[in-house]
Amino acid sequence: MFRKMLLVAVVVLLSACSSPMAMLNGQKTGEVAPEKLNAAFIKSNIIPRKTTKSDIVNIYGETDDKVISSDGVETWNYEVADQSSFSRKVAGLAYNYLPIPGKQYDNATNMQQHAVNAIAPQQKYQRLRIVFDSRGFVRDYTLM
Prior knowledge:
Helices cover 44% and strands 16% of the residues. It is α+β, with helices and mostly antiparallel strands. The chain has two domains: 1-28 and 84-122, no CATH class; 31-82 and 123-144, Beta-lactamase Inhibitory Protein, Chain:B, domain 1 (2-Layer Sandwich), CATH 3.30.1450.10. A hairpin with a 5-residue loop joins β3 (126-132) and β4. α1 packs antiparallel against α5 (85-97). 13% of the residues are buried.
């Protein structure tokens, strides 16, 4: 019974760590919601030679990751980092210590990986680089 309660507590804690809302509530400047780094969203909201710096700040917020060159060109970077790596490690360790029937067949079915993915899904690293001309308009952008 104690192990089941421990498992429930670990699952609750890990799900809070890996949820997008937890990431956004404590986000640092330059980190954005994953849906704002969608190619369709970017294409409809960032128009080269029309979108300004203030438009980008309204869409994505401020970023500390800025590069300013001597000719007045600025590059701003926004990203969604992989926030789940720690919670995935903890979930894997917890799974190793839980007595689960049939666990000896896990290598054949990859059950541990499925369990970890259910608790702490992997998040893809994405980065948006926006280049502004010297007048403050978007010159181009790159989604990586």
